[in-house]
Amino acid sequence: MPDNQAIIFFDGVCNLCNGFVQFVIRYDKGGYFRFASLQSEEARPYLTGNGIDPSELGTVVLYENGKCYTRSTAALRIFRRLSGAWSLLFAGIIIPSFLRDVVYNFVAHNRYRWFGQKESCMLPTPELRSRFL
């Protein structure tokens, strides 16, 4: 994969996660991010190669520069690359991850109850298909 791209692995049946992917697509003007569901076969080698259990769906995973980032660190690194004021959220990286992840884990634990889930992963439109693995 080129150095000018990263992959976001997300829970493909989670409405919150799918909404986050749509949000990233909207503000990723340079097309830096590609996407794949955590449940996909395409995700497996990236995840297992970085010591992440593919059945762990409670986190977004960012694969960037050969390394995987999870939970709040992944989210903040994603925001850093978005256009507009969203990149300013990366300043939250100064908060220790064990504190940031308390909030992240609370939302992740309740995401199905609050936002629901789909029967299957979203299908990208033909225009976006090239951005998905």
From TrEMBL:
<keyword id="KW-0472">Membrane</keyword>
<dbReference type="InterPro" id="IPR052927">
    <property type="entry name" value="DCC_oxidoreductase"/>
</dbReference>
<keyword id="KW-0812">Transmembrane</keyword>
<dbReference type="Pfam" id="PF04134">
    <property type="entry name" value="DCC1-like"/>
</dbReference>
<dbReference type="InterPro" id="IPR007263">
    <property type="entry name" value="DCC1-like"/>
</dbReference>
<dbReference type="GO" id="GO:0015035">
    <property type="term" value="F:protein-disulfide reductase activity"/>
</dbReference>
<protein>
    <submittedName>
        <fullName>Thiol-disulfide oxidoreductase DCC family protein</fullName>
    </submittedName>
</protein>
<keyword id="KW-1133">Transmembrane helix</keyword>
<feature type="transmembrane region" description="Helical">
    <location>
        <begin position="78"/>
        <end position="99"/>
    </location>
</feature>
